[in-house]
# Entry
Amino acid sequence: MSNIIIFDTTLRDGEQSPGASLDISEKIQIAHQLKRLKVDIIEAGFPISSKGDFEAVQTIAGEIKGVTIAGLARAVEKDIKSAADALRNAKHSRIHIFLATSEIHRKYKLSKAKEEIISMAVHSIKYAKKFTNDIEFSPEDASRTEPDFLAEVVEAVIDAGATTVNIPDTVGFALPEQYAALITGLKENVSNIDKAVISVHCHNDLGLAVANSLAAVKAGAGQVECTVNGIGERAGNTAMEEVVMALKTKNSFFKTETNINTKEIITASKLVSSLTGLRVQRNKAIVGENAFAHQSGVHQDGVIKNRDTYEIMNPEDVGLLKTSLVLGKLSGRHALKERIKELGYDITKEELDHAFEKFKLLADKKKEIYDEDVEALVQEEKTDTPHLFELEDMDISCGSVPIAGVRIRIGKDEIVSKADTGDGPIDALYNAIDLVTGIPANLVDYNIRAITKGKDAMGEVNIEIDVDGQTVKGRATKTDIIEGSGQAYLNAINKIAHKFIKRKK
Ligand code: KIV
Ligand code: ZN
# Structure
C-alpha cells in the first residue's frame, strides 16, 4: 500500500468560489476541522493577495500544529517573501509557487517565451529555498501545455529544488485517460522525476475532477489536491470526500491508503457548507442528504436483510449516525462543555459562559438539543464580527401590508426604534433595519434551512448583501426564522459598518 498525500485547498482555491469568502475566525474553525480530518497539508491562502489572506495564513501557521501549512505565491520574489513571512511560525511550512506554462497563457497572459518561463520558475524555487526546503511548483494550465515543454519545466524545477510538482488541470479540460497518460509521460520522460512527489490538481468544469484525480493516482501520482464538498473556482475542485472514499472503498484496486480520519467527513462538510453559505446538493456523493438514504421499497427491504445489498460504504465510516441527540433543558454547564469538546472544539471559559447562557434560552424553546444545535452555538461564539448594531427586539405584523418594528442597540448605550413596511415580513424587517443603520444595503441572496429535524428545529439563515458594490455575507441560526433573518442581516451589516461609518465622517 502506498500512501497518498491529501493536500487540502479549501481555504485557498475553495475560498475562490464566487460568494464563498471567509473571515479569519471562520478560516481558523475550518483549519481546526481539517486537522481533525488529518489532511496532510492545509493550503491556508495566498498571502500576497490581501491583508486578510496574509493574516489568515499567519494565524493558521501559528495555531495549527502537526499539519504542514502551505501558502501560495506567484513565481516572483515579493510573493514568495510574503508567503514565507506569513508561514514563519509554522512548524512545517510549504511554499507553493505557480507559473502558467501553456501556450495560450504564455502568449496572452504573460507575454513570455518558453526560456523565460523556465528561468523564472527556476529562479523562484532557488529563492524560496532560502525559507523552507518544502517547495511545490505548479505549471498552471499543465494539461493544455505541450507535453515536451511540460517535461522540460518539470525537470528544471526539480533540479532547482522543488520537492513536489503539481500538474494542474486548471480549466477542467482533461479526460481521465488523457490525464493519466500525462502523468505516465512525465514519469517516463523526466529523468529526475523520482526526486519529487507528483501531485494532481483538477477542476470540475466537465464534472471529471474526481475521475481525473483517481486516474492520475492509478498512473502513479502521490498527492491529490482537493477541497471539502468540492468547492472552488467555477464548477469547483476535486471533492476531498469523494476521492478519499473512492480510494478507501476500492483500495484493492488502487493499492493505496490515505491518513484521513473519514469519520470526520460529515462534520467537515457541514462546517464548510455553513460557513461559506454554499449548500451541498441533496444527491451529492458521500455528503449529500440522500447519499445513504434508500427510498424504494425493494432497496429498503434489501438493506434491512443485509446492508451490503445496496450500500458500498458504511455510513458510520463517514461520520453519519453518530449519536446526535445530546442535551436537554436539565443538562448542566459541564455536560455542555464535554459535548463541545467531543465535537472537537476548543472553547475558552468566556466563550463557554456565553454559549451556556444561549444554550439555556434555546433549551427553553426546544425540547431536544442536537449536535448541530450545539455546533451553531459554538460557531456563534467563535465569530469575531464586531457587534456595532444589535437587534434588541422586533415586532412583525403580516396583514395586507406587512409592518416591522425594530429596537436596535447601537454601540454600548444608544437604542433606536424604527418601523417600516415591505412586500413581506422580511422585506419590512430589512427596511426597518435600514432606517436605523442608514447603510444602503441591497439584499442579493437569501437562503434558509432547518439544521435539525422537527417543527422546533433551528433555522440557519444565510444572506448576502451589496453595499456600494461590496458583497458581504451574513449568517444566523435561530428557532425563530424571522428573528434569524434579522440577525443574519445585521451580522452582514456589522462586518461593513465600521468602514462605511469611517468613510461617511
Ligand atoms: O488551478 C490551478 O491551476 C491552481 C494553481 C494555483 C495550482 O489553482
Ligand atoms: Zn485550482
Notes: The radius of gyration is 25 Å. Residues 292-317 form one domain. Residues 481-504 form the longest helix (24 residues). The chain has a mean pLDDT of 93.
